[in-house]
Amino acid sequence: MHRVRLTTTILIVVLAASACDTTQRPRGVGGDADSAIGDSTYRVRLRSWRRDSAVLDSATHAVNAATLYALYRQALGRDGVTLRLMTEMDCEYLRLTYHYGVVPTKHAVDAMRDTVYRDIGVTDALDYIARHAPAEGMIETGYDVFKPMPLPGPKTIGGTRLDVEFPRPRPQQPVPNGR
């Protein structure tokens, strides 16, 4: 009985949300695939994905990766890539993730890595670190090792989760012969 009510409620919410869409264009008018398909469920999912993407992008811009950038640059110094430096890099990445969220941190750090060694022609910072790291040894990792930790950040912002990123929704393909 609860499953039927829940399904009915979800269907009503989806239909109501699509009925309130004032940005709809007539079928076949306009240039993007978003308006080419009259799939209301798809439009609802796309609108949600766009909102979540904007939230994640804004949260990404808030990530302060300056300390991690300095650690990556330190790998070019006299001492090179040491186990201690690798531990510090891991620690700082964990701190950022703990405070800003997994997805915003990953996006910010990926962008930072794209620029950190550009001046010496390196395009893959992780590969550079791996090639210059000690051949053996252990690094310490984990929340209990990396003290002090910053205050934990929010897990969501306005309903958008900061720990997962969903792919852009795609319209359903029409079934041939209406089957």
Describe the structure.
It is elongated, with a radius of gyration of 23 Å. Helices cover 53% and strands 2% of the residues. It has seven helices and two strands. The two termini are 30 Å apart. The model is unreliable at 1-37 (pLDDT under 50). Helix 3 packs across helix 6 (102-116). The chain has a two-stranded antiparallel ribbon. The protein has helices at 2-19, 33-36, 40-62, 66-74, 83-100, 102-116, 125-132, and strands spanning 156-157, 160-161. It has a domain at 60-161. The chain has 179 residues and is an all-alpha fold.
Poorly predicted regions: 1-37
Sheet having the most strands: 2 strands, antiparallel
What's the total number of strands? 2
Question: What is the averaged pLDDT score?
Answer: 78
Report how far the terminal alpha carbons are from each other.
Answer: 30 Å
- Total of DSSP H or I helical runs spanning 4+ residues: 7
**Cα radius of gyration in angstroms:** 23 Å
Strand arrangement, major sheet:
1-2
Q: Which structural class matches the secondary elements? A: mainly alpha
How much strand content do the residues show? Answer: under 5%
Topology as a string of helices (H) and strands (E): HHHHHHHEE
Shape: elongated
Helix content: 40-55%
